[in-house]
Amino acid sequence: MKPEPFARFLERTGHRVMRAGGVDWYEGGRGFLISVPSHRVLSPSDDAFDELFAAGGVYGVRFPAPVDGVGKLSYQIVCDDRDFGLEKLSGNVRSKIRRGLKRCEVRPVSFDEIARLGRTADSDTMIRQGRQPKLTGEAWDRYWQAAAETEGMEGWGAFVGDDLASFLVTVAFSDGPVEFLLARSRSDTLGSYPNNALIFRCTEEMLKRSSDAKVTFGLESLEPVGPLDQFKFSMGFRAQEVRQRVVFHPLLRRVLGSSQVRKLVYRWAAQRGPEGGFWRKATGLLRFAEEGGDLALQRR
Fold first, then answer.
1. Is 60 exceeded by the pLDDT of residue 298?
2. By C-alpha distance, which of 100, 70, 77, 21 is closest to 226?
3. Strand partners, 239
4. Global pTM?
5. Which stretches of the chain are assigned E, i.e. beta strand?
């Protein structure tokens, strides 16, 4: 798939989508744009930023950048091992995968099946991660209908009996990588290791499809998600170095250039506690821009 159809998918599922500098951008949070696809390393011009900021309601952009350039040193979670298999994993992980494959049926599933059977897995996952479900009401049906009509998107599932214990949405891009876009699982079936079985079998399948295939779980998160990343690393994925740039709107960057203002933002976010999802992301963006040097850059 080229990036454009995926951008249209994002648009159909309720995201604001813009195009500048030959790149599609979608609103991943309030007023903040992310490049499409997230794995493609970019070096946008100031003109592209100006075009995005001039559209109104855009407070900043986030994208992966070359390792030898500006930005926070970060990583993309990838697996590109042509010899990927059980023997490459630890004994503990091999045991969980074998038990998962024995207790679960892993197979491709239609998006209609996920729409009918996957709500519990989605809500359980969000609750375990301390987040609010995003796909509720009509948005749930709209998401799966759009996915079914987008070339290059696939659904995979692990079943325990008749229950969809876990599901995975994949997106295959024409420039090589397959992105694992959405992974969800039911809490009452975790003892059957559906996640281990599903991720292993699907990664194995995707790497077999072409000689230069690569699977990615995307970029390092703005929020602390150590246990989630460690699970992916245990499943044979690795951290591939990349830089992440966070570029704020010039007016906002001028305000955030003050260390005192940044301290106030961090303090306010800390006071919000576990309910402050927006502020966790906001401070993540601020931290990435701060550590990456983007707040100190002087633009023309």
1. no
2. 77
3. 77
4. 0.88
5. 17-20, 23-29, 32-36, 60-65, 72-79, 105-109, 153-160, 163-172, 177-185, 214-219, 238-248
pLDDT of residue 276: 55
Structure tokens at 65: 């950048």
Q: Which structure tokens are listed for 151? A: 């070339």
Maximal CA-CA distance, the chain: 61
User: Per residue in 60-92, pLDDT tens?
Assistant: 999 999 999 999 999 999 999 988 999 999 999
Whether the Cβ atoms of residue 242 and residue 67 lie closer than 8 Å to each other: yes
Residue pair 195/185 in contact (Cβ under 8 Å)? The answer is yes
- pLDDT of 223 over the 80 cut: no
- Element (DSSP H or E) covering residue 206: helix 194-208
By C-alpha distance, which of 176, 246, 245 is closest to 211? 176
The domains located in the chain, with CATH, are: 3-76+242-292 (no CATH), 83-210 (3.40.630.30)
Tokens of 42: 């970019």
Could you please report the per-residue DSSP string of 235-271? Answer: TT-EEEEEEEEEEE-HHHHHHHTSHHHHHHHHHHHHH
Q: Tell me the backbone φ, ψ of residue 179, rounded to 5 degrees.
A: -100, 130
Alpha-helical runs (H) found in 41-118? 46-54, 91-103, 111-117
pLDDT tens, residue by residue, 93-145: 999 999 999 999 999 999 999 999 999 999 999 988 877 778 888 999 999 99
- How far is it, in rounded angstroms, from Cα 192 to Cα 165? 9
